[in-house]
Structure formats: C-alpha cells, structure tokens
Amino acid sequence: MDNGIKIGLLYGGPSYEHAVSCRSASNVALQLIKLGYKVIPIAIDSLGRWSIQKLSDQLVATYRLEEEVLLSSSQGLIYKNKKLDVDTIFPVTHGYGGEDGRLQGLLDLMKLPYVGSNQKASTIAMHKELAKMVVKESHIATLPFVTVDENYDMEELLKNIKEKVGLNILLKPEDGGSSIGVKPLFDVDKTKLSVALQFVFKYTDKIIIEPLLTDFVELECAILAENSSVIGSLPGQVINPKGVDELFLSYEQKYLSSQSAYIKVPADFENSVLHSVSDLAIEIGRLIGIKGYARVDFLYEPKENLIWFNEINTLPGMTTKSHFPLLASSCGYDWSRLIPFLVDESLKRPKKENLYFDEFK
Q1: Are the beta carbons of 61 and 23 closer than 8 angstroms?
Q2: Which one of 48, 179, 203, 246 is most buried, by most CB atoms within 10 A?
Q3: Closest by alpha carbon to 218, among 169, 172, 277, 161?
Q4: Number of folded domains in the chain?
C-alpha cells in the first residue's frame, strides 16, 4: 500500500537525548511504512550535520558525507544538488536543538511543513520556568521553584531555596528531559548544594530547583490538538517496579533497565480525579498553544488530593517503551489513527500560518 505521501523522518540531534530519539525514530518509521507512507530517514548527528540514512529496524544518526542534506532558506532541503522532495517533516527529536523551538524555527524559515508544535509553543514547553509561569497565570497549581544560572551568589541562593522551596530539594536542568542531569538533595546545605550545582550545570546553563516530594504519584496525559480543538486522554499512572524507594525515575529506569518503569492506563483513582487531571491537561495544551500532540505530566499527592502541573513534552518519546502511544491509544488514537492525524494536521497548518506557502510550493 502506497498513499503517495513522502515523509522526511528527522531524528538524532546534539542533545543528551540523542539515543532516545534514534529509538523513537526506528519505531515511528515502522508505523509509517505500515500505513503506506514513503519514509526518508534524515539523521542529525551529534555535531548537527544532516544526512540521509538507510532504512533499518534500528536507525542510527551517523553522518554520511555522500548522503549529506543541505539547508536552504529559499529551497528547503537540498540533496545531491536538488530540492529534496518531501511533503512534510516528522521530527522525532528530543531536547536541545530538537524540541526547544530552534529546529521548528529553522523549518519555518525553510517553509517546510512539520509535525508538532511551532517555535513559540515548543520554546515555552521546553523551558520549565516559562511553562510554569504560563500555567500559574491561569491559577493552575505548580510546585514552588527557584531558578539559578552560573552567576549565582551562594548565600542568597541558599536563603531563597530555604524560604521558597524547603530543605529537601530536586535540582533539574531548566531545559532538559528524560531525567538527565537530575539531582535530589535532603537537608540542603552549602556543601551539598555546591556539589549538586556542579553536577547539574554539566547538562544546562540554567537550573530549576523544586521541593523533593516523597509521597506522590506521577500521572501523564496525552493531548491531541488541531486548530482550536484539543482532546485529552484520561491520565495514566507511572509504575516503578523497583518500588517507592526511588526518589525520581532516572534515565536508566525509563529506558535501559530490565525492570523499566511503565504506565498503567487509566490510573487507579476515582473518576473525579482522572477527569480533573485530563481537563487540566487540555487547558494547559491550549494555554501553551500545542499543535499536533504532546504529553502533559502531573504530580499527584493522594493523601491531600493535590494535583501539581509538572511539565509538558511537545515531542514525547515514541519508542516501544514510551508512554505517549499507549495514552493516545486509550482515547481512540492507536497508530493507525494517530499517524494520519499528525501528518494531516501538519499539511493543513502551513497554509494558514505562512501566507507565502502556496507560492513557494
């Protein structure tokens, strides 16, 4: 079956989530092919070089000079001295340079349609501080936080943390994902904080510091957006086979462990809680301006019945272990419906957002 639509599957990139991106792309390529799309794998290596790869079960992002893809603001993608013929780009990129608006802005400049949110929404969602500020403006609960860059004053920072966050804290890259560079601390003091900051600054130039919760459940929702219409799944509950002793889910526990975390859909809570979380996810998607799809994550404290917005992912993982496909399937969007929805939405949108698009085509 060939539906005649050519997809440039874009993956890899310079972020610490490069390997996850390759796994996501391998799975998405399989689903696209099953549905009759022509897939052109375009890899971005760790140095930011683009080249076409051979289709395989396990896609890699190794630069191939003879298959290099060049970028042109007037012609789009150039391959072997000709414009690369693709109908839309399907980015399966995570983190820095792929999910944070940089890539989306580049694709806009090249006048290429693409799956997923635009530059503005991607930038807001990727930067945890920005996302929390947008959400707080609409009176949706977020955990208190402090942000810090490398020009900090230790005395002032420690005072702010103790006053606004508490003694038990979690440090995270403000613009990161997949739990890379996350550091928990109990009974924070100067020495512990100094060591933790040095560790997290290896992965970012800005850190967000939040309370370290110990009695909570992670809940996740899929949202799907087309024009002003946004729908959401009921939340799934993230289950850690290692039990409650884990303070947070590490990268290894998410992707590499033989006892990886998994998601139970829907979560084991009352319908009122499930629908409240789903409604919040939809509202957050609208506030940030999500296009196509996203996953919205919450922290839930059952004893106090408190729901905290945690973060939003505009290009969620699409590996065989990823949560988003299961969440989407639970609200009627299995792969056979999800992929066409995302591709169709990407093809419709540029004609509304770019007045010059038809002329360019």
Answers
A1: no
A2: 203
A3: 277
A4: 3
Which residues are paired to 11 by β-bridges?
43, 92
pLDDT of 67 above 50? yes
**Residue that is written with structure tokens 């919205």 in the block:** 296
Residue 356 lies in a domain: yes
Q: Which helix (H) or strand (E) holds 346?
A: helix 335-353
Residue 263 lies in domain: 125-141+214-330
Yes or no: say if 13 and 95 are a contact pair by the CB < 8 Å rule: yes
- Structural domain contains residue 119: no
Which residues partner with 92 through β-bridges? 11
Q: 208 by DSSP, 3-state: which?
A: strand
Please answer whether residues 14 and 44 qualify as being in contact, where contact means their C-beta atoms are separated by less than 8 angstroms.
Answer: yes
- Nearest of 136, 131, 157, 181 to residue 288 by alpha carbon: 131
Dihedral (CA of 330, 288, 27, 34) sign: positive
Task: Return phi, psi of residue 285, to 5°.
Answer: -60, -40
Q: Is 5 exposed, middle or buried (0-12, 13-18, 19+ CB in 10 A)?
A: middle
Same domain? 188 vs 296: no
299-319 burial, b at 16+ Cβ within 10 Å, e below that, comes to bbeeeeeebbbbbbbbbbbbb
